[in-house]
Amino acid sequence: MLELRNITKGYAEDRKVLANLSYTLSAGEYVAIMGESGVGKSTLLNLIAGLDAPDFGEICIDGVAISSMQDDAATQLRREQFGFVFQAFHVLPHLTLAQNIALPLMLNNMATDCVDQMLGQVGLHGRGHHFPRQLSGGELQRVAIARALIHRPKLVLADEPTGNLDPDTAHEILQLMRREIKANGATGIIVTHSHVAAATADRVLNLTKDGLRPVQPEHKP
Fold this sequence. Notes:
Strand content: 25-35%
Distance between the termini: 37 Å
């Protein structure tokens, strides 16, 4: 489903954030990426999402390099098949919660009658008419997660999806994300500093200057 081929990205000539990174994820896989601050975790998500472009290398979806697509085709691919949970939420302030969540459905000409159900699933039942200014940071994060999942994308990317949530809500949201990813046969990637969040994934990968490496589970005596 998703293949990273020799991805290199830098922000200065002498500072490569990612260097010759390669990895392949199949449909249905749900992984967590961990690593030290500044190692390039969020940069990697932005590259996969097409929000930034690598200096070298290719990102392929179903064997097709995104960089080789025409702009319209790449935009349509992201709109239909990607769901992204931004660390800064990017909830639109002039739209209600229901309208924010329904946005991917509307852009894809899909029915919006499932919005109320999704609001309930993220603990915001009856709040659809509210505006973002009326919500806490944790509630805004739940809106962003609902918006990323509502159109059943084939690739779910989440940058610190539980960073503003209390432990109980974080557990519920992580379980929702896992259920949706598995039910839709999607590929899911979360970037997180939380070992609790990472434990909900099928596998945990550690991003270092040497690339992505599987984290071996701890064996209890």
